[in-house]
Amino acid sequence: MTKALLSGNEAVAEGVRLARAQVVAAYPITPQTTIVEKLAEMIGERSLSAEFIPVESEHSAMAASIGASLAGARAFTATSSQGLALMHEMLHWASGQRVPVVMANVNRALAPPWNVWVDHTDSMAQRDTGWIQIYAETNEEVLATILQAYRVAEDPEVLLPTMVMLDAFVLSHTYMPVEIPSQEAVDQFLPSYRPVVRVEPGTMQLFGSFSPPDLAYMEFRHDMASAMQTAHRKLIQAGRDYARVLGGQPLGPIDEYRTEDAEVLIVALGSLAAAARDTVDEFRREGRKVGLARIRVFRPFPEEEIRALGSRVQSLVVVERAHSFGSGGPVATEVRSALLDIPSRPAVASYIAGLGGREVTPRHLRALVERAIRKDVPREAWVGVKEVIA
Amino acid sequence: MAKLTIPSEEYQVGGHAACPGCGAALAMRYLLKGLGPQAVVVIPACCWAVIPGAMPGTCLRVSTVFSSFESTAAMASGLKAGLRQTGRGDVPVVGFAGDGGTADIGIQALSGAAERNEDFLYVCYDNEAYMNTGIQRSGSTPAFSWTTTTPHGLEKHTPKKDLPMILDAHHIPYIATLNPSFPEDFVAKATKAARFKGTRYLHVLADCPTGWKHDPSQMVEVGRLATLSHYWPLYEIDQGRLKITWSPSNPIPVEKYLRSQGRFKNVTPEEIAQIQQTVDERWHALQERASRDQKSPERIEVQSETPASSVPHSVHPVSETVIVHPNEPFPSR
Question: Which residues, 6 or more positions from A253, have their beta carbon under 8 angstroms from its beta carbon?
Answer without folding.
Answer: A232, A235, A236, A295, A296, A297, A300, A302, A305
